[in-house]
Amino acid sequence: MCNLARPWLSPDSFDRKEPPRELLMDALKAKQRALQLMPSALENIDSIGADVILAAILFFVNAELIESGWQSWRPHLEGAKKLLNMMQPYASFNEALRDYVVSDFYVYCTLSLSFNPTMPGVQTAFFAPTQVNPTLSRATNHFFCCPAQVLDILREAAQLLNTGGDEQVADDVMVSSFAALLKRAQNVDVLTWAREGVSPYDETEIQSRFLTGSAHRLATCLYIIQSTPSLTERVPDKVCETLIRDIYDTLSPMPDDDPNFKATGWPTFIYGTTATTPELRAWVMDRLKRLVAVCPWGFLYSAIDTLQILWGLDAEGKRTTNWIQQLKDLNVDFLMV
């Protein structure tokens, strides 16, 4: 509600009005009350159920993403991973609930690695490919609408990037590993995935899933190439240019009322990091504003702010080819989904 009550100052502005104080205070009080109840819930996990508590933690993460997506989501995410590691003794009261909650946490944990400055915290066996891929397959309509294979490749790439500072990891080994991930991403069969769990007669939904999944696959390929300068130097410029053009061509025809339109924020952001002309940057900002109109979550406003930081570095002549490392160096710690 606070975001809905904060319109842009003008159609061309990226600044917003302050929210009504009363509305903001009500939201913060409700959030504080919920946080105060969590310790008691954890003490009574046997009677309440681990699945229910996990769902509550997911709500906290979502609340932080609604607010801004900056930093404050991280403690909740780390707490969720610790709870997941403790859940084995607890029977699931609702398998469907657990599937959807775990799939959302997996998406958040994967994306939190992609360009944040801090190292990953607690790891959980729930996120091993043998565990999470069946979960994602069952939760066919999780909000991110991305093939499990692509998410797994993105997670591996981000984890590999986080080990890049280790002197024991040779540069040629890093390049070889990223190149293998790139090839895997290029070979993902998105159309087959788009048809899974969907009526073969529902061509509209299949097309929507195909476009959204394709955008994520293409953006992941571009992320892999851009994540390490050594690989960027070895990949022909034409490959990157084709990926950038394909992302644009995939996102452009998707109407705002498409049910998966809201799931295209991450590929839009990745595309935005490559935009160099005023026209393309205007297209990116217009699309992000349209996403905000459909899904008024704070992380989208943070994405707009972050792109302006990167574009500002361009204007100052300080931008490097490795924008991912630049964001980490600038301590730009937000979760983009």
TrEMBL record:
It holds the Pfam family Fungal_trans_2. InterPro entries: Fun_TF. Keywords: Nucleus. GO terms for cellular component: nucleus. GO terms for biological process: positive regulation of transcription by RNA polymerase II. It comes from the Eukaryota. The keyword Nucleus applies. Transmembrane segments: none annotated. One of its GO terms (molecular function) is transcription cis-regulatory region binding. The keyword Nucleus applies. It is found in: Nucleus. Its main location: nucleus. This is Acriflavine sensitivity control protein acr-2. It comes from Fusarium piperis.
